[in-house]
Amino acid sequence: MNPETGRLEIDCNATGAGFAVASSGCGLDEVGDLVYPNPAFGQLVLKSMDILDKEDQPLCIFQVTSFRCGGFAIGISTNHVTFDGISFKTFLDNLAAVAAGKPLAVIPWKDRQLLAARSPPRVTFPHPELLKLNTPLAQESNAPVFDVSEEALDFKIFKLTSSDISNLKEKAKTHNARISAFNVVTAHIWRCKALSYDIGDDDDDEEEIGQDLERVSTILYAVNIRPRLSPPLPASYAGNAVLTAYASAKCKELEEGPLSRLVELVGEGAKRMSDEYARSVIDWGEINKGFPHGEFLVSSWWKLGFEEVEYPWGCPRYSCPLVYHRKDIILVFPDIVDKNGVNVLVALPSKQMGKFEILFHKFLSA
User: Fold this and answer.
1) What residue range is the signal peptide (predicted)?
2) Does the annotation mark 310 as catalytic?
3) Quick one: three-class SS letters along the chain?
4) What is the distance between the alpha carbons of residues 97 and 312, in angstroms, rounded to a whole number?
5) How high is the pLDDT of residue 140?
6) Which among 80, 208, 268, 361 is annotated as catalytic?
7) Fewer CB within 10 Å of terminal CB in the chain, N or C?
8) Is 80 one of the annotated active-site residues of the chain?
């Protein structure tokens, strides 16, 4: 952190990435099904290097773990300051090319001034999806952007097959619009997550239930702004070029309203992200040094294609995120068998998880 500018800076000192070699007495088949979450996967990623001070940690650490069967895993720990999911895919494509002795697959575009704030900054839209922090970013802050408390959480994978997604799209079909798989899946998750919210132990209190249905739920999700700016950013832009879209609705609408309306609300979040809106968000951040703000975030690895990277030894058998203890982040990632299906990783307190599971299947079959 540069205390004078209040900005995070990358120290380009050419000291390289972290690298660790590990081995396991197990075969890959003994690890279990390659479906996250699996606690064993945490041993395959080195998150920091003990031999280095906190300020000298590399932005990227690789751990290669060999298994008794001859298979191996590559665990990669990165810093989000370096790149977003799209440019991380470029990074992996280039890593694979270098490992094969080939030229870079994609030449990264490294000019981050393309996303600099305007001078002077101009906030031209209201931004309810953003929260101003009381503590400046240049100071050590414990402000909870998302809940990372030590509350006991249950973890569960919910599968949406390609058939499930087609059925949801059919239910949400309207005469005037094409429905994207992402929007309909996100709307389904939003409805289940918002209505599983725990308002207390007394579920029979009608007044509380009524107040709960009047509660406004806000969902957040990332939008790639590379093609949305004017002029568009280079597709190979190497940095963070995603902003947070949002949708808000009362729980009553989420419970009683048609799925088509919820899908429409989700879609409006991305449509809102014009060049001027994106510039307004960037300028808001320059002034307020804040963070995205909502009930929860859907983080999608669905279309990033990490599992499609062609290393010299072939494509990964499985690629997945390792995210810990975050009830306010729901992960969506590809299914390794059903290529058009998705897995939804949810972490919630036990009581809320029970509600979420009931609602997930109820709205799926309704």
Assistant:
1) none
2) yes
3) CECCCCECCCCCCCCCCEEEEEECCCCHHHHCCCCCCCHHHHHHCCCCCCCCCHHHCCCEEEEEEECCCCCEEEEEEECCCCCCHHHHHHHHHHHHHHHCCCCCCCCCECCHHHHCCCCCCCCCCCCCCEECCCCCCCCCCCCCCCCCCCCCCEEEEEEECHHHHHHHHHHCCECCECCCHHHHHHHHHHHHHHHCCCCCCCCCCHHHHHHHHCCEEEEEEEEECCCCCCCCCCCCECCCCEEEEEEEEEHHHHHHCCHHHHHHHHHHHHHCCCHHHHHHHHHHHHHHCCEECCCEEEEECCCCCHHHCCECCECCCCCCCCCCCCCCEEEEEECCCCCCCEEEEEEECHHHHHHHHHHHHHHHHC
4) 8
5) 47
6) 80
7) C
8) yes
From 307, 310, 325, 357, the catalytic residue: 310
If we measure between CA atoms, which residue out of 266, 354, 304, 343 comes closest to residue 36?
A: 343
Residue 296 pLDDT exceeds 80: yes
Closest CA to 354 of 153, 186, 190: 153
Lookup result for tokens 């279990």: 32
How many other CB atoms are there within 10 angstroms of residue 361's CB atom? 12
Cβ neighbours around 101 below 10 Å, total: 7
Cα–Cα distance, 88 to 106 (Å, whole number) = 12
pLDDT at 15: 86
The domain segmentation of the chain, as residue ranges, is: 83-365
Task: Write the single-letter amino acid at 105.
Answer: A
Structure tokens at 161: 């097959």
Q: What is the pTM of this model?
A: 0.88
CATH of domain 83-365: 3.30.559.10
Instruction: State the pLDDT confidence band at 271, using cuts at 50, 70 and 90.
Output: very high
Q: What is the pLDDT of residues 191-212, one digit of tens each?
A: 999 999 876 644 444 444 444 8
Q: Does pLDDT of 190 surpass 50?
A: yes
The per-residue pLDDT for 259 is: 95
Average pLDDT score, the chain? 88
State the residue for tokens 């990623």: 45
CA-to-CA distance for 158 and 344, rounded, in angstroms?
Answer: 5
